[in-house]
Design brief:
alpha+beta, Alpha-Beta Plaits, globular
């Protein structure tokens, strides 16, 4: 299985709840157009202080393309969010691992299961 799944937990910085919605919707629109992006889901807790993003990509090239899209809004990302944890499953390339290293990701290999 060559899919790469990225699970990101982030704090929403004080005073940024309204900007969260705009940023999320913009990123959903951008990511929807990326051919290798298979799943892109955001969830937020009731207090709107923490969110999760679950992303599934066809392969490592698709992850790198998505990270390229994120570069354009990195300043805004840093203003709104405080990354708390990053989990990566699948078989990411060394290039993806290097690009994500600053977030201190935890890596898990696929062990079994199915998708419908």
């Amino acid at each position: 299985m060559s899919n790469v799944v990225v699970i990101l937990e982030m704090g929403i910085n004080d005073g940024q709840a309204d900007n969260f919605d705009t940023f999320m919707n913009d990123m959903i629109g951008t990511t929807r157009e990326e051919p290798g992006s298979l799943t892109y889901e955001w969830s937020v807790n009731p207090e709107r202080t923490t969110c999760h993003v679950i992303e599934r990509f066809a392969d490592s090239d698709a992850v790198m393309a998505h990270l390229g899209s994120l570069q354009a809004v990195l300043g805004q990302f840093i203003e709104i969010f405080a990354p708390q944890s990053l989990t990566v499953t699948g078989s990411p390339s060394e290039e993806v691992k290097a690009a994500l290293a600053m977030f201190g990701p935890k890596y898990f290999e696929f062990a079994g299961g199915f998708r419908r």
